[in-house]
Amino acid sequence: MQINRKLSVAPMMDWTDRHCRVFHRLLSRHTLLYTEMVTAQAVIHGDRDRLLGYNEVEHPLALQLGGSDPAQLAEATRIACDYGYDEINLNVGCPSDRVQSGSFGAVLMENAPLVAACVAAMGRASDGAEITVKCRIGVDDQNPAEVLPEFLAQVSAAGVRSFTIHARKAWLQGLSPKENRDVPPLDYELVYAMKRLFPATEICLNGGVTSLEAAEAHLAAGVDGVMIGRTAYHEPAKILCAADRRIFDDGVDTTAEQAVLDMLPYITEQLGKGVRLNQITRHMLGAFAGRPGARKWRRILSEGAHKDGAGPDLVLQALAAIEPEDTDDG
After folding, report:
1. Is the pLDDT of residue 329 over 60?
2. Catalytic: 94?
3. What is the CATH number of the domain that holds 31?
4. The pTM is what?
């Protein structure tokens, strides 16, 4: 399928699991959703249904892979294509120690030829899923204005037509992964410049975007898409409820209340498979951020969802704490 990447929710470890993605999809039909990063080795040797399984409603859906061995990434791509993912994305941006020790993630910014070999192998192995890359503008003492154009040129020559660029450097030594999301300065202008330099390549921007207004401004500045991370998770209604109308020019605004109600059949189904309620509702705690009753919503779910027998009735009890939004224009 042809993927519209004008807005996407970033892949985030421990956050964007299948339950989170189902909830996000009920808020926006068009926003592209990403899995958590899964290593190629895990896909090859691990529990594939647990790692790769998803609900059909999640489409359009992208799998993010981590790795640096072309043969392993190719095999993981073949396996993932059997699951029907719309896109397979190579992580060239994560700065964590675990990722560095495996010689993948952001450290690959230092080895464009290897990234090119990886994506070429993934492309040959893919059956229908587009191969994309998420990267940084550079790492450590690299000069992004010099490194990033060369990186994009080499990797795009290997067949990648879509990049999502986190507009910060990654410091592989001295900063934690959390600090790498905040401390290095953002350089949006460099990402805009990459779109001008590579007009035929899809360039999406990531990093520090916390509102639809900001996303619209970046799109107006020329990039093809915007990826939003933590705000889309912690305040999903703020980002996703109006996304279809404002970003994709298709559809009407959704509401967090209706999305919660629409989650109930899914919750019932998952509870029947042995999933505990809190494994699902932990991703819904921010649904009413900033709304009267939001604190009580969070408290009811946080205190009760982990208990034996907790189910849809608890969600409805929590939902009753939310005060209706005032829609009176007068």
Report:
1. no
2. yes
3. 3.20.20.70
4. 0.94
